[in-house]
Fold these 3 entries.
Entry 1:
Amino acid sequence: MKNFQVSLILFFLVALFSCKKEAINSSQQSATNSNELATVASDSKWQGAFLSYNGNPMSRVIKDKFFIKNGYARIYDSSIKISPFNLYHTQFRLVIPLSIRIKGDSLNFEIGLKNPINGSPFAATVGREIDVYIKGETNDAFIANTSTSDVSPGSQEYALMRVGRTLINNVAELQYNYEDYNTFILQTFNHGLVAYRNDTYVKGLAYYNEPLIGRLKEIGIIFQGSGFIDYIKLYNSANSKLLMSEDFNTDGQSTITWY
């Protein structure tokens, strides 16, 4: 496996949001909250990036109109012309609007995804890694899923979980070939980071000696190659309340719903 540090492309999305009401009755407040969530949703967009390995083509930002199609999000040759010799990554990220208050330490980040061996132009031996991460105001969490060792020799070394500087690697449980759609969950709860696959516990990491993640600022997925995302949901892991959903069912358009 060729291991290299992927530089996350930094760019910002400004969410326009204001609350002008000061004293209104409960029914008016409910209507106002609904309107505010609608405004935030209209301003929330998925941001994509092509992360090049050898410069053919160069790394670049990809707008949602080029990667949301046919019921999924994916950056491939329909989005950008890619050399078969480029061991690239693709990234999808969402910056959480300032008006949305989500606890990064009580979160279920659920994704329906796949990254099949034949879904990218370069050899499967390079790997089909899937990285899932969250960023908060005071810390971040990261889980790297890798291909099995029979497909990508040496890949177990890069299967890891991390919160801040607390890390475990060589996590064999995180080796899996996502040939078909599976559900992956990054969960934070009670100073613990946990990975679930298809609602089955995979591995956990305690982060008692780390700062809390704090208010959620960003979520993201990085594929080695051109993976698929079917849907994304955010839940409060303490009470199972649905916080956000996206089904990618509208071609060329983010359809994020906040609850």
Entry 2:
Amino acid sequence: QKRNSTHLINVVQDKDESLRDYLTRFNKESLTVKDLESSFALAALNIRLPQDDPVVVTLQVELFTMKRILIDSSSADILYKHAFDQLRIPADQLRPVKTPLMGFAGEMVHPLGSIDLSVVTGTAPRQTQVQIMFLVVDTPSLYNAIVGCPRLNLIEAIVSMRHLLVKFPTRFGVVEVRGDQQVARQCYKTAIMDKGKEKVLPIENVELRGYVEAERPQPVEEVVQVPL
């Protein structure tokens, strides 16, 4: 019986196992995976378990590829000003927001405004496009944006912190968006090294993309459960 692709994430090198033996065992296990993509196999090799890294992904936001997007359990979707500025959207398009936000340290943060942005998740044909209302805030952050529970629920997403993986259904099958463990650890390392400094990191790999036909989340008829 063929296994799910996430099985490879749990195939880790034993303490006394040589690299050659580990790679041989990993290759044997990969043969048991159904429809394995080479990119996923490489990502599985790069994930180190056990780990407690956050899920940090790359998404397409308003025709730009935006890295360092934190998948979080918060009740709001946040876009930081340094990232908003690089989207080349006039500031006068921001709608006023009167309600302040509560920061991680308990401080009150007043948003510059809110704005609806198109966010594409996945790759064609397994992708979905939704409008997300982001609150734009001008505070230092190692991330460019935070996507919280409301939008994750909108696309019926399931998040596995252990596997650094986000899954959600589309009309064409289940989409897997993998978190970048290296980027997540880089953010953590930078936060420790620059503790107390007001430092922000700009968007990496900002690229213009072609037009993507909008696809609103649709009920899935055949897929009932999303296995991890």
Entry 3:
Amino acid sequence: MIGGDGVEIEIDERVLVHRKYQRGRIIKTVWLFGGLERLTKRSFMVPLLTECDEGNGRDADTLVPIIRRYVRPRSIIYSDCWHAYSYLRSMGYTHYQVNHSKHFVDPHSPAIHTQNIERLWKSLKKCIVRPEMRPKYHKQYVARLLFIRANSATLENARVPEDLEELVFDVQSLLTLSIMKLYSTPYL
């Protein structure tokens, strides 16, 4: 869990993979929901396993239990204006929203933004959205990114193989550094 008394958290949902312009191979749209502590950068990401194309799967019935599971009560939560977040105040969170259709940082209060979680999504896409990445392994790619972020000091000079299929570990295996092999291709 992240957050706690007065700890600032940013939450957001993001489409990870989708067909562009409804062309090309038919692939399942993959959505993620995540949160990030502003100060410590501790984070969580949860794949939304239901079809989310029309908004179902990203509704309050899906997102509220995830927030309760991963974010401690009395946290300060910053989010966009997605309607599923409207219940957060009644759940014991302090909640601020930024309207992305008007601005990305609230002009009246510059602390109200979701720039950090947006940066996390950008890092994730840069890391895993490439032609050679296989959709069935997206959960493992997300787990790998979270593992590397959590252990970045230890893995400062880490290398990974060019053949990215070798990177597919199960989530339990990612918990130990000893299973990671260091190769000659830079990670980032």
